[in-house]
Design brief:
This protein has four helices and five strands; from the N terminus they run ααβαββββα. The protein has helices spanning 2-19, 24-30, 43-56, 117-124, and strands spanning 35-39, 59-65, 70-75, 84-94, 97-106. It has a five-stranded antiparallel beta sheet, sandwiched between helices.
């Protein structure tokens, strides 16, 4: 009986850990809404600046998908989770202007995260 109880407890803990490990890819697929701004830069410049700003904001696990025009990262990562996921989409408006759409999603709404969209755009500018 005791081994059954330990097995159930271990299974529940594993399930809880896996559930808290939602990836930033899940966030990208969720289609969360973001804020957009247009900058007088090329798409290549937008990619470069976005990566630098993500790093300034303490992001890690930065993933790029240039075919789908987005960069996604996590901010405030711990051993089993992250505090927020951030995603920026870079879309050319024309050859000299690029629209950046930024979305962020906190994992736990009861916790604050240092990352804000306002900070991202301030640093990006």
């Amino acid at each position: 009986m005791r081994s059954l109880s330990l097995t159930i407890t271990a299974s529940l803990l594993l399930l809880l850990a896996l559930q808290s490990c939602a990836t930033t890819d899940d966030f990208v697929r969720s289609g969360s809404e973001g804020t957009s701004r247009v900058y007088p830069i090329t798409v290549k410049q937008a990619w470069d600046i976005t990566e630098v700003v993500f790093r300034w904001e303490g992001a890690d696990n930065i993933k790029e998908d240039r075919k789908e025009d987005y960069m996604v990262a996590s901010v405030g990562t711990g051993v089993f989770s992250y505090d927020a996921a951030i995603c920026a989409w870079m879309e050319p408006v024309d050859s000299e202007n690029t629209m950046i759409t930024l979305a962020s999603k906190r994992k736990d709404l009861s916790k604050a995260t240092a990352f804000t969209q306002a900070n991202f755009y301030w640093r990006f500018s």
